[in-house]
TrEMBL record:
Annotated ranges, domain ABC transporter: 332-564
ABC transmembrane type-1 domain mapped to chain residues: 19-298
Cellular localization per UniProt: Cell membrane
Keywords on record: ATP-binding, Cell membrane, Membrane, Nucleotide-binding, Transmembrane, Transmembrane helix, Transport
Protein name, entry field: ATP-binding cassette, subfamily B
Pfam families: ABC_membrane, ABC_tran
Transmembrane region(s): 12-31, 51-69, 123-149, 155-173, 242-263, 275-297
Upper taxonomic lineage: Bacteria, Bacillati, Bacillota, Clostridia, Eubacteriales
Membrane topology label: Multi-pass membrane protein
Length: 581
């Protein structure tokens, strides 16, 4: 809560007017019963009809003022609350963007989604209205109780004696409802995840004929959800009528005991009406107290979860005095690099020299450590031992933003946003000229298929738009990376879904890019054979290194892969074989 108060403090001036309006609105509310009393005692009983019009005018004024100040209070509290929630959500999102890959290894997306939506909403509920309501209700309780005692302390004591059981029951109801709500909220998250996974993986479900299993899983969770909803209704049905009974009982007691007090001339009829007015002002605060404390408690729990994320210090960040090289060449050196995820080494003693503008290809079985190697260049993870040098400077000494600006990565899992093809390509680059755009879409063979589309580059990809093939998605990702104009380009298995011809065309275009250092992870010989250096990785260690020719002559691991991939070509004539390879 303290941390939320810090955010609130920033907007302290925005709270002055709504707080003042709240006090005025409460003050006006307190005047209402006084006017009623005067109408009954002075106008109806004493026959002083002359003041009626003034009293009615006052009543009208109070009602109007109450409405206006109530509106100002409500709107400005909401306004300030929205600003605070906006800041918290932005800060949280900004912080999440700074967190390293390793953080996301240990948390699932669903959990982070809950933090940025449900938990933020809980905070919004509390600071948008619950805290304001809570303060307001406490003020009503204090002022109305005091005023009751000023009318007649004995009557006040009699009537207030019924209040504690009502408060107790209201708190108990809210406690039970709160617990049931938490269970329902957790269960709804599971239900949503199941539905989301099923919908996202609908093709897989159908391909494996798992509809029945998925349906049963969903039905079971929906049943649990239904039960929990029912449980909430049962709790409500159990407590609510009793609370209603006590609320009504208070009124019965006020009228009965108050009637006796009026008959006994202890108070006037008008005073009884005034008394009744203040009693009414107590019932709602008492009934709402549990509900409001629940919302505030929920906000507290959510704030704890949100600030726990905000307190995670990104392990990978710019050094205190980062280096900004004035000229970037793109030379990369792995100097005796080892790396482990938690306790397990996945890379051992890696030494690679990649001169600026050259191409290095990395091959190896799945899990050999190919992605882990390239992840160290842009510091998505930091190496455990050794150094990765960018133009001779340890990447850990460079400004992180500068480093990443100079690296373009096409990841193994292509991810495109539900936006136009053009926006997907321009994703990370600002001020793109038409010429630059046209160049990269040609190089990445995107233009080939986009020009066939009715809406061309304005075609929306995703749920509302057309679907794309795996190869088309890869081509768009390559165009996106090329447009970034970084000195280092990393293609992590980025051409695996392409046909040989398209892959060849892209390679030809990349070969012409002598100003870019290229890292290519691939499984096909055709994708790596023209690289200046080919690295064969096995269980995190380099087992072979050289160019296509030297590695073939070596007749080692590379040669084995080569033979395996081209064994069927033995039957082809030598000339044709040469061309295919
Ligand atoms: N985030 C992670 N946390 C822990 N271990 C990981 C993580 N990512 C990869 N590993 C492990 O590190 C090893 C190397 O993985 P890496 O992804 O670098 O292999 P790869 O050669 O790129 O494989 P593939 O060809 O399947 O992409 C594997 O044993 C893998 O299980």
């Amino acid at each position: 809560m303290k941390r939320i108060l810090k955010y609130l403090w920033k907007y302290k001036y925005l709270y002055i007017i709504p707080i003042l309006s709240m006090f005025i609105a409460i003050g006006l509310d307190m005047l209402n019963p006084v006017i009623y009393q005067k109408i009954i005692d002075d106008v109806i009983k004493a026959g002083n009809h002359g003041i009626l019009s003034r009293l009615l005018l006052a009543l009208l004024g109070i009602t109007l003022g109450r409405g206006i100040f109530g509106y100002i209070r409500e709107f400005l509290f909401d306004y300030a609350g929205a600003k605070v929630t906006f800041d918290i959500r932005n800060d949280l999102f900004k912080h999440i963007q700074k967190l390293p890959f390793s953080y996301f290894d240990g948390i699932n997306t669903g959990e982070l989604m809950s933090r940025t939506t449900e938990d933020i909403n809980n905070i919004w509920n509390a600071i948008g209205f619950a805290i304001m309501f809570f303060i307001e209700q406490v003020l009503y309780l204090i002022i109305a109780t005091t005023l009751l005692f000023t009318i007649d302390w004995k009557l006040a004591l009699i009537c207030l004696s019924i209040m504690p059981p009502m408060l107790f029951l209201a708190m108990k109801l809210e406690k039970k409802i709160g617990e049931a709500y938490e269970k329902l909220s957790d269960q709804s998250a599971v239900l949503n995840t199941t539905a989301q996974e099923n919908l996202a993986g609908v093709r897989l479900v159908k391909a494996f004929g798992r509809e029945k299993y998925e349906l049963e899983k969903f039905f079971k969770q929906n049943e649990e959800n239904y039960e929990l909803n029912l449980n909430q209704a049962r709790i409500w049905a159990k407590y609510h009528p009793v609370i209603e009974f006590f609320s009504n009982l208070v009124l019965v007691v006020v009228i009965s005991a108050g009637g006796i007090f009026v008959v006994g001339n202890h108070i006037t009829l008008g005073e009884l009406v005034k008394f009744n007015g203040y009693i009414m002002m107590l019932i709602w605060p008492l009934r709402l107290m549990g509900w409001l404390t629940n919302i505030i408690a929920r906000c507290n729990a959510s704030a704890k979860r949100i600030f726990a994320i905000m307190d995670v210090e990104p392990e990978i960040k710019s050094p205190a005095n980062p280096i900004y090289p004035t000229k970037v060449q793109g030379e990369i050196i792995f100097d005796n690099v080892s790396f482990k995820y938690k306790d397990q080494y996945v890379l051992k003693n890696i030494n690679i020299n990649v001169p600026a503008g050259s191409t290095v290809a990395i091959m190896g079985a799945t899990g050999a450590g190919k992605t882990s190697i390239i992840n160290l260049i842009g510091r998505y993870y930091d190496c455990t031992e050794g150094r990765v040098l960018f133009d001779g400077v340890d990447v850990k000494s460079l400004d992180l933003e500068f480093l990443r600006d100079n690296i373009s990565v096409v990841m193994q899992d292509t991810f495109l946003f539900s936006d136009t093809i053009e926006e997907n390509i321009k994703f990370s680059t600002e001020n793109v000229s038409e010429e630059e755009f046209n160049k990269v879409v040609m190089e990445s063979q995107v233009d080939d298929f986009v020009k066939e589309m009715e809406e061309g580059y304005q075609t929306v990809i995703g749920e509302r738009g057309v679907g794309l093939s795996g190869g088309q998605k890869q081509r768009i990702s390559i165009a996106r990376a090329l447009l970034k104009k970084s000195k280092v380009l990393i293609l992590d298995d980025a051409t695996s879904a392409l046909d040989m011809e398209t892959e060849y065309q892209i390679q030809k275009a990349l070969e012409k890019r002598k100003d870019i250092t290229k890292f290519i992870i691939a499984h096909r010989i055709s994708a790596v054979k023209n690289a200046d250096e080919i690295i064969i990785l096995d269980k995190g260690e380099i087992v072979e290194q050289g160019n296509h020719k030297t590695l073939l002559l070596k007749k080692g691991r590379y040669y084995e892969i080569y033979s395996e991939q081209f064994k069927d070509l033995d039957i082809l004539a030598d000339g044709l074989k040469e061309e295919v390879i």
